[in-house]
Amino acid sequence: MTAPLRIAVLASGRGSNLAALLTARECGGLAIQPTLVASDKADAGALRLAEAAGVPTLALNPRSYPSRRDFDLDLFARIADSGAELIVLAGYMRILDGGALQPWVGRMINIHPSLLPKYRGLHTHRRALEAGDAEHGASVHYVTAELDGGPVIAQARISVMPNDDEDTLAQRLLAHEHRLLPAVVGCIAEGRLGLAGADTVLFDGAALTAPLRLLEGQLHPHP
Ligand code: GRF
Fold first, then answer.
1. Which residue minimizes the CA distance to atom 8 of ligand 1?
2. Is residue 48 in contact with ligand 1, taking CB distance under 6 Å?
């Protein structure tokens, strides 16, 4: 058996995606070892969840640093010190400095609540509703200097219901996020996923031409 993948998780909020990863490790055999959960918000629920699970935590205050780059360089240095091999952004709401993140390209992923490249940034559920979309979803992508713009690895799709509002849509999608993120992390842990060059996602050694789809908890290449 290979060693579990050492991951650091960055989160600014409640941490339900972190909880999904921890649950998948406890109950679903997800081969990860969380080395650190870090936040830019000392009161983030994610930090409390991590503490309860016995995972080391770190809260850094952006206002204690002269610049975004200084903050991110310190953050990434501490993540590296933790021994993490992969960084998972799970509701991390702070924009990262493009230069500071460069050494982690290909080793850092983010979960975003839209079918990227649609709706980068904030208010994705509202924007999907305003556009009258029939489908909505979540994406996990490699992080690059472009906000929510890195190569997409996998997506979960849901139908938009006629009576959906922002809250119902967000809530229904979240349940799918909680399966999507552990599925992607699991494939990375198994060595089945990787980034080649600037924008080619490799799955089982083959270049993806479209994001993987989450179907019944498993990732599948788009037919
Ligand atoms: C999720 O919707 C995620 O896609 C987005 O931020 C939210 C975080 O939720 N990036 P949680 O903190 O994991 O509960």
1. 91
2. no
| CA 223/CA 14 separation, integer angstroms | 35
The model's pLDDT over 201-221, given as tens digits with 9 standing for 90+, comes to 999 999 999 999 999 889 999
Q: What are the structural domains of the chain?
A: 5-220 (3.40.50.170)
For residue 1, pLDDT over 70 is answered with: no
Distance CA 124, CA 173 (A): 11
Determine which residue's CA is closest to atom 6 belonging to ligand 1.
91
* Other beta carbons less than 10 A from residue 57's beta carbon: 18
Mean pLDDT for the chain overall? 97
Clarify whether 178 is annotated catalytic.
no
Question: 116-129 pLDDT, tens per residue?
Answer: 999 999 999 999 99
Instruction: Determine the pLDDT at residue 2.
Output: 78
CA of 15 to the centre of ligand 1 (A): 7
CA 1 / ligand 1 centre spacing (Å)? 32
What percent of the chain stands above pLDDT 70?
100
Run of H or E including 52: helix 45-52
* Residue 15 Cβ contacting ligand 1 at under 6 Å: yes
163 or 28: which leads in pLDDT = 163
With a 6 Å cutoff on the Cβ, whether 177 touches ligand 1 is: yes
For residue 96, give the nearest of 76, 123, 115 by alpha carbon.
Answer: 76
User: What's the rounded Cα separation, in Å, for the pair 70 and 172?
Assistant: 38
The answer to whether the CB of 143 is under 6 A from ligand 1 is no
Residue with the smallest CA separation from ligand 1 atom 14 is 16
